[in-house]
């Protein structure tokens, strides 16, 4: 057993209000500069919808992630030979149209306009050409389902629904959506790392954060293809690729990443998971429908003395094991089985997990919560947002995985209604708990972690990284310089 530590995350989708504060916090900190205008290391998209870059989930178009070839796993863009053959022509790369042409406004025309009869306006201008432009796309253009007949209808998860299901989904009185915030998943079997011909992308040993060494990067952009989530970006400013760094400098100072710190809905949880690195390949080879469970399985119990001993042998620091024991991510993913990986069928073993949204699923037929308790299963069968759609997002198509999560979320709701409103009987609560296979105590803990926690409980940053790096003979400052964050240059524009 090779025990490793991974700083992992959970996003609770019922709590996301789609305010984009996270995206702006990240943009201001890391990508507010030349060459990075179109980049959103953190983006929030509306689902159903085609996302950013558009149709990123469609791997027939982008060829990201892994596929099974007989007994082996192979990158969809091809093995090493395949990637090298594509370095001068790679048709699977997203183009600027797939992202959007970055724009700003001529604010000076607004603020310095001379007095006159007409209302001054700030015209949009392209940040690529500097010329006036018509804005036709943006990072969440289909926000809150605007233009859903164009965007939501083309969502790959919607396309796989039956005609009848699609018709129901888009019936105006049943229209439904939720927000999906996305950052790099800091995957265990990262497609970006495997596809880089220069060996510039690596997974940091102490916490599993995936980084691009800016000195080694040659700008081949194979990582952009290799990542099925499209979370590496090419900078025309530096001629290098870059990506979310999970705010490792902030974490090294004991702070939460900026998007976590600023999250208005408090949907974000961060903590350490221990896992068995020897099982990465066998888990990634599982069938689509088994992947979510297999990924959960490979997460190890940080309280088990045998695991602790194995972790020590693998060089995991004591403080990191203690952080893993307090990890809210461990609770959500492993203990409660409430959080699922996004598109596990891409086989990169993403380490960002989502609690699927309950509210869009439940609001049907004017049923009150009381009815829910009576009609526990049929509620899910008649869900407003088809379970099949959610299973295609979070469980490789395995509807049972998603239903198991919803049963627990509904049981929590029924129990809270019993406590706060009192119109649901104790017997009904007991029935719901036994159907969902959760105890009252677990329900209470889930409720607390979802609603009442402090930032210290939600975000447990391990106290290891910087001092451990020093002990291991690494110079953290030099490491940062190597990453290119200390000495940024403004080379010639390349697009
Ligand atoms: S999400 Fe993409 S960029 Fe991030 S580690 Fe996974 S494959 Fe790499
Ligand atoms: S800041 Fe939080 S609530 Fe707002 S969009 Fe981002 S993840 Fe959602």
Note poorly predicted spans. 479-495
- Which CATH architecture of one domain? 2-Layer Sandwich
The 3D shape can be described as: globular
Ligands bound, unique: iron/sulfur cluster
CATH names the topology of one domain as: Alpha-Beta Plaits
* Number of E-state strands: 15
| Multimeric status of the protein | single chain
Helix content: 25-40%
Which secondary-structure class do the elements indicate?
alpha+beta
CATH class of one domain: Alpha Beta
Which strand-content bin applies to the residues?
Answer: 5-15%
The count of helical stretches stands at 26
Span from first to last CA? 47 Å
Largest sheet: 5 strands, mixed
Give the radius of gyration. Answer: 23 Å
Q: What's the mean pLDDT score?
A: 88
Neighbour order of strands in the largest sheet: 13-12-1-15-14
Fold blueprint:
Blueprint: E1 3-12, H1 21-30, E2 43-47, H2 59-62, E3 66-69, E4 72-75, H3 80-84, H4 96-99, E5 103-105, H5 107-111, E6 124-126, H6 156-159, H7 163-169, E7 178-182, H8 191-195, E8 201-203, E9 210-212, H9 222-226, E10 232-235, E11 240-243, H10 248-252, H11 258-262, E12 268-276, H12 280-284, H13 291-297, E13 299-300, H14 305-313, H15 318-325, H16 328-335, E14 340-341, E15 352-355, H17 359-362, H18 369-374, H19 376-381, H20 387-394, H21 399-420, H22 426-436, H23 440-451, H24 455-458, H25 465-471, H26 476-482
Helix pairs in contact: 20-21, 21-22, 21-23
């Amino acid at each position: 057993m090779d025990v490793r530590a991974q700083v992992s995350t959970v996003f609770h989708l019922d709590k996301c209000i789609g305010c984009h504060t996270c995206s702006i916090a990240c943009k201001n900190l890391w990508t507010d500069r030349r060459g990075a205008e179109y980049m959103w290391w953190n983006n929030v998209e509306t689902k159903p919808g085609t996302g950013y870059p558009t149709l990123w989930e469609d791997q027939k178009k982008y060829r990201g992630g892994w596929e099974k070839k007989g007994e082996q796993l192979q990158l969809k863009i091809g093995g090493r030979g395949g990637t090298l053959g594509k370095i001068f022509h790679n048709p699977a790369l997203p183009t600027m149209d797939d992202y959007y042409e970055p724009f700003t406004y001529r604010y000076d025309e607004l603020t310095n306009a001379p007095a006159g009869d007409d209302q001054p306006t700030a015209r949009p201008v392209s940040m690529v050409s500097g010329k006036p432009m018509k804005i036709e796309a943006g990072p969440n253009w289909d926000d809150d389902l605007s233009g859903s007949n164009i965007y939501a209808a083309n969502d790959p998860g919607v396309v796989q629904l039956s005609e009848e299901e699609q018709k129901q989904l888009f019936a105006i009185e049943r229209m439904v959506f939720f927000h999906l915030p996305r950052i790099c998943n800091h995957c265990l079997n990262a497609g970006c790392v495997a596809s880089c011909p220069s060996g510039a992308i690596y997974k940091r040993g102490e916490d599993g954060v995936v980084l691009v060494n800016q000195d080694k990067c040659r700008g081949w952009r194979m990582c952009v293809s290799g990542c099925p989530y499209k979370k590496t970006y090419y900078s025309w400013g530096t001629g290098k690729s870059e990506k979310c760094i999970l705010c490792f400098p902030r974490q090294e100072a004991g702070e939460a990443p900026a998007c976590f710190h600023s999250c208005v809905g408090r949907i974000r949880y961060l903590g350490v998971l221990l896992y068995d690195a020897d099982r990465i390949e066998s888990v990634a080879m599982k069938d689509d429908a088994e992947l979510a469970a297999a990924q959960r399985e490979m997460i190890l119990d940080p309280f088990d003395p045998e695991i602790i001993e194995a972790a020590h042998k693998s060089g995991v620091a004591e403080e990191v094991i203690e952080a893993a024991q307090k990890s809210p991510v461990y609770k959500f993913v492993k203990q409660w089985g409430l959080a699922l990986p996004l598109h596990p069928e891409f086989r990169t073993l993403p380490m960002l997990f989502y609690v699927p949204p309950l509210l869009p699923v439940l609001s049907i037929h004017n049923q009150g919560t009381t009815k829910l308790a009576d009609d526990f299963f049929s509620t899910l069968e008649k869900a407003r947002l088809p379970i099949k759609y959610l299973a295609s997002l979070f469980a490789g198509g395995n509807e049972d995985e998603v239903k198991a999560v919803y049963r627990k979320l509904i049981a929590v709701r029924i129990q809270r209604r019993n406590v706060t409103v009192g119109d649901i009987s104790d017997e009904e609560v007991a029935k719901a708990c036994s159907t969902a296979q959760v105890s009252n105590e677990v329900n209470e803990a889930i409720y607390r972690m979802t609603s009442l926690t402090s930032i210290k409980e939600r975000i447990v940053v391990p106290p290891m990284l910087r001092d451990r790096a020093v002990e291991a003979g690494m110079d953290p400052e030099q490491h940062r310089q190597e990453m290119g964050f200390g000495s940024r240059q403004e080379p010639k524009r390349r697009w």
